[in-house]
Design goal:
This protein has 241 residues and is α/β, with parallel strands linked by helices. 28% of the residues lie in helices and 22% in strands. The protein contains eight helices and nine strands.
């Protein structure tokens, strides 16, 4: 089984301006993310969907399909927009939304996500990843947590600590969307839990099922502020990415 990776790349960033073009590692940050995606065994193609030509220029030497997107509000909207433009040209049943500022996510983890779409979670409309949360992450409102059912389907996502006691799971912000998801997504109303600022809650309320693959190890972590980028540079210097 193979899937198409769509990387929605928005240049504007208030906390770390133009972060996708930062190149202190020797190449723009967006190129690191693309290279990771291309290392996945079960990915047939990679699409960069950008809102600025400078991003597309940065990845012009990468073996990817580049597409210019409109001004959508969030990553899943950009993925859905790109899917609608290219649906007839993409021979895949699953489409992975890989955030452009996640260059450290392991290709092995993404392959596990894609395989789960075909095997134990093929009936879900969306499949995502989670890993054990540290105590700091469990109480940090900037870290999204998820609670799963016994069959691996998501019960709820929150910025608060859930569950109250026991091991919390940190949601890793990568999604695999089944082709049928895009036909339903437009009909999802805003969540009654809008205060969480989590669009996946609207999907759950609309009756869509979200499978959660639990990794036994921590993985991923977006680059939001300068300190995150500095940690990434240390990993690059250490030969780990």
């Amino acid at each position: 089984m193979s899937a198409v990776v769509i990387i929605p790349a928005r240049l504007a960033s208030t906390r770390l301006p133009d972060k996708l073009l930062l190149a202190e590692s020797g190449k723009p940050l967006i190129c690191h993310t693309v290279e990771r995606a291309l290392q996945c065994r079960h990915v047939s193609s990679v699409i960069v969907s950008a809102d600025d030509d400078r991003i597309l220029t940065a990845v012009r030497d990468q073996p990817v399909i580049c597409h210019y997107s409109g001004k959508q509000e969030n990553g899943s909207e950009r993925v859905a927009w790109t899917y609608r433009q290219l649906a007839n040209k993409l021979n895949a049943e699953w489409f992975v939304n890989w955030q452009a500022d996640e260059p450290t996510l392991s290709p092995t983890s993404v392959d596990a996500l894609i395989m789960a779409c075909q095997i134990e979670m093929g009936a879900a409309a969306v499949v995502t990843l989670a890993c054990p949360a540290s105590e700091q992450e469990a109480t940090d409102p900037n870290t999204v947590k998820v609670v799963r059912r016994h069959d691996g389907l998501a019960l709820y996502f929150s910025r608060s600590r859930i569950p109250y006691a026991g091991q919390a799971l940190r949601h890793i912000g990568i999604y695999a969307f089944a082709r049928r998801f895009f036909g339903v997504r437009r009909r999802c109303e805003r969540s009654a839990f809008d205060g969480e600022r989590l669009e996946q809650l609207a999907w759950l309320e609309a009756g869509l099922t979200i499978g959660v693959v639990q990794l036994p190890y921590p993985d991923g972590g977006g680059i939001d502020v300068r300190a995150d980028y500095d940690r990434f540079l240390a990993c690059v210097d250490g030969g780990r990415t």
